[in-house]
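Honest question from a wet-lab person: if I give you the sequences of every part of a complex, can you actually get the arrangement of the whole thing, not just the pieces? Trying it with mine:
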Amino acid sequence: MASNSRERILRSAAKLFSTQGYHATGLNQVISEGGAPKGSLYFHFPGGKEELAAQAIALSGSELDTEFAQVLHDAPTPGEGIARVLGLLGTRLAESGFTKGCPVATTALDAASTSEPIRQACNDAFFDWQHTLTEHLTAHGRPDADTLSTVVLAAVEGALLLARTRRDLAPLTAVAAHLRTTLDG
Amino acid sequence: MASNSRERILRSAAKLFSTQGYHATGLNQVISEGGAPKGSLYFHFPGGKEELAAQAIALSGSELDTEFAQVLHDAPTPGEGIARVLGLLGTRLAESGFTKGCPVATTALDAASTSEPIRQACNDAFFDWQHTLTEHLTAHGRPDADTLSTVVLAAVEGALLLARTRRDLAPLTAVAAHLRTTLDG
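Yes, you can. This is the full assembly:
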């Protein structure tokens, strides 16, 4: 079976798990939206839905991490960098009709308590994002980079949750302004 | 049918929706854990699972709002008040084996995009908590109370998500320290 059927399944799964969570996502939906042959799912993911979810979370996490690192790198200050990350996430959320928030949070909340492989994948994604932030803040001379990056990640995640529920970008704007002041003084 | 069968169903639903979300929660589980007669669910909640979820979210939201208001009122400063709220949420999370985080967030992420009554109930709960915070900050003379309460709620929600996924209270501690400095100077 072509390796692009694996890729198609994984991308379809990443999209579905991120918007509707683990339990609402059926394997038939993953296959039909991914346009992959039915038999290929268990061929590529012998651990079934749980393995697929863990790998989909890992893919989403790593792609967003690369994007974050680039945006932070291109910004003149850390506060401006975070504000640009929030701007990007806000555009994506609004353009999707407020369905595309954090690609990890929905599955983290609805499945991480009952599946250790999924919890680990979600935790790894959060860890990578926080690590990217910590390195960036350290490079900008913040001695409290580790604590600060926890606060930044928490505020960004919470703002996405509130904005998605409210169908309004105001929480992202409020958090961007606060973090700009906190990080750039 | 006794009105306490309604209460039992609602409490069982509130617990299940808050820990595992909307889609993982079946009505049979709500009934069996609530110890209510099977026929009583549609008698009390003719709108079925969707109505039950909206009312369970409303109950959880309003109980937590009352608790927040009391803790904030009893604290000497707003920063100390928020730190105590985070302490309380952290104790509850750890004592539940990291399953009881925010009682609204899981359902907000896994069902609010597809059900307007559920989205509204989640949004109302977030609004009430933020309103309680805004009033408290205004009473303490903060002219930026509305923006600040958005930031506080986002940071608390994000910290609960990270702590639950990490199975570690460190994100709550980091956010409490940051908000104490932000609010009390």
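Two things worth pointing out. Residues 48-74 of chain B form the longest helix (27 residues). Chain B touches chain A through 46 residues (CB under 8 Å).
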